[in-house]
Specification:
Layout (H helix, E strand, L loop, with lengths): L9 H15 L5 E3 L7 E3 L12 H9 L1 H5 L28 H9 L8 H7 L8 E4 L3 E2 L5 E2 L3 E5 L2 E5 L9 E2 H4 L5 H4 L11 E2 L2 H12 L3 E6 L4 H11 L5 H4 L2 E5 H5 L4 H11 L7
Parallel strand pairs: 7-10, 10-11
Antiparallel strand pairs: 1-2, 3-6, 4-5, 6-7, 8-9
């Protein structure tokens, strides 16, 4: 197993998580895909527990309707699962789901009353997390973009990544539809690839923070230096110093250092996420 401080590609981290969860799945209701890098897809046990979630987090998710609704996102890789017709598989049942990782942490009881976590994120204690929010980014035609962000904590928008390859790309014309695009960014400094803007999710996050006088954070693994570099490349193209100060990159390892022992142990075992040294 690689040391958690080493740099990993998306594929390498996917293999790391697959290896960890292949061993872990023996104690849970779980299936393995027959893709090149096997995905472990967990299911709920008869006791009402779920292998992809901390028991305390899962109980809270089931008790809150809007959180529970997130569990119904269909898993697009079901065609690679043996006996795929047996049941419907869901995205948040997959071992490398960044949404599941996010909910494991922020649905855990009392987590948002922890001073260290709130200080790290620059938020007030006692907030209630909202998952899958649509901030409504203004367009030049007077309408709003209804793209979804992973998490909202008060006035903080969050985009979460784990094994995803990048922050998505978009055609020039689609990005230029945003009302404040040329105000927020030095457009010539934004990274491009084949007539498309790279890191479109980061562009949208900055625009949402600007439009709503909010903050924007990207959660990613410290082993994914490629994603971290993409973040700072896009943030550096923001023209306003004040807005740049409201944007941040937070690693799962930094988050882990602020969490209770049970959550830390779960993250270490399941994802290889070890708490950053203080």
């Amino acid at each position: 197993m690689k040391r958690p401080t080493e740099t990993l590609s998306a594929d390498a981290l996917r293999r790391e998580i697959s290896h960890r969860n292949t061993a872990r799945a023996a104690g849970w209701a779980a299936e393995m895909s027959y893709s090149a890098v096997p995905n472990i897809v967990y299911g709920e046990t008869v006791a009402g527990q779920h292998g992809n979630f901390l028991p305390a987090s899962y109980r809270r998710i089931l008790q809150q309707a809007d959180w529970k609704a997130r569990l119904s996102k269909v898993y697009t890789g079901s065609r690679f699962i043996p006996r795929k017709a047996d049941r419907t598989r869901y995205e948040l049942e997959c071992a490398n789901s960044s949404d599941a990782l996010l909910m494991n942490i922020f649905c855990y009881p009392g987590i948002l009353r922890r001073a260290a976590l709130c200080s790290l994120l620059g938020i007030d204690p006692g907030l209630s997390p909202a998952f899958g929010v649509r901030p409504g980014i203004p367009l030049k035609n007077g309408r709003t973009d209804c793209s979804e962000m992973d998490l909202k904590l008060g006035t903080l928008f969050v985009e979460a990544k784990l094994t995803e390859g990048d922050f998505q790309t978009a055609r020039f014309d689609l990005v230029h539809r945003y009302r404040d695009f040329e105000i927020v960014f030095d457009v010539e400094r934004l990274p491009i690839n084949k007539a498309r803007f790279r890191s479109c999710q980061l562009i949208r996050g900055a625009l949402a923070a600007h439009a709503h006088a909010a903050s924007f954070a990207i959660f990613c693994d410290q082993r994914r230096q490629d994603l971290i570099e993409d973040c700072f490349e896009t943030i550096s193209a923001v023209t306003s110093v004040e807005l740049r100060c409201r944007m941040s990159v937070v690693t799962w390892q930094e988050l882990a250092a602020t969490l209770p022992p049970k959550v830390r142990t779960f993250l270490a075992e399941k994802y290889g996420i070890l708490a950053a040294a203080n």
